[in-house]
Please model this.
Amino acid sequence: MAKIQMKTPLVEMDGDEMTRVIWKMIKDVLILPHVDLKSEYYDLGLPYRNETNDQVTIDSANATKKYGVAVKCATITPNAARMPEYNLKEMWKSPNGTIRAMLDGTVFRAPILVEGINPYIPGWTKPITIARHAYGDVYKNTEMQVDAGCKAELVVTHPDGTETRELIHDFKTPGIIQGLHNIDKSIASFARACMNYALDQKQDLWFATKDTISKKYDHRFKDIFAEIYEKEYKEKFEAAGIEYFYTLIDDAVARVIRSNGGYIWACKNYDGDVMSDMVATAYGSLSMMTSVLVSPDGVYEYEAAHGTVQRHYYKYLKGEPTSTNPVATIFAWSGAFRKRGELDNIPELMDYADKLEQATIQTIKDGIMSGDLAALCTIPGKQVVGTEAFLAAIGERLDKLMA
Ligand code: NAP
Ligand code: MG
Model:
């Protein structure tokens, strides 16, 4: 069989530890036998980030802007312990943070569902995708402790030097205050990213805040979403047969629990942080969670939601058997191939992406899986295998589908 040809390179961002090991196995076993892989390779592994003073991360984000589609392996965000371990010149910033800031994106996280791996909420038969705004609010706050007898005010200084003031609280006893902000432009690009993604996925879009209580702050989010929807998206949504609707966050939570899934839930930064962990846990496992960063101008970066699985890597280095789940990383590749195929009009590449996912899910349905899945799985006669055997089993099924 001739290998599938690509037109535009995928931006390939390699990473660290166990996921770097899996990255190579996925390429060798599942990709290279079928696709004449055209990728522009960036090594975001910590040693090379350190060697290039993190320039490689910036270069990879620029390449993503240029080509439009990237696939990323999990990477270490250095902390104090990593400084001596990798002999680092600096505690480099999170590559995901750097890339997100450069692409101005929104992160969408969706679970991969397999029959026999049951969500804790039985009604959730379709995936719920969380879209998290990744700028501002409590993540860029200013906080103070306030002593008794102090008066706290919000002060805005205008360009001409005049001030607008509002009383926060007259403190008779000690307390605390917090200052938050967001920017219209960032909220607008969040809204567009969510609406584009809803059209792309042909799924309804829900958005919820607490605008009844936060009549200016949260209300601004609601208004910007509504304005952009009316002006730019209403007709496209109607043509696609999908819906945008806004509700209060408490109402949204109740509806989400009662729903069957199958929609995108846009969340403000903090809500998205908390709700994506809740949703991931309720569906089963972080290793079955995909993640894609979408920029307002339609650039896509696919990855797994989990980290580099450090604990397994240290076992792997000692030569001990590991059973790391490669599914989310495989789906990062399939997502990127499907998008590349769509943009370049290569139906065979889109078909390959479908089959890669199909082979992966079939392997689990056949009862072959990593240890983390076995713990959640009700499939009779299930068999826990190591990472290599799991990938080989997926490879066998993929070869048959591709033949
Ligand atoms: P992690 O790599 O997600 O792993 C945490 C634990 O979750 C693992 O020890 C393992 O549990 C389980 N797990 C996660 N993915 C799994 C998989 N594919 N298969 C089987 N089990 C899996 O998080 P971490 O240990 O907190 O972080 C390790 C490194 O990853 C850190 O340096 C962090 O900076 C980085 N990180 C990167 C990203 C990213 O690039 N997107 C995201 C998060 C973290 P058991 O040990 O119980 O088996
Ligand atoms: Mg969190």
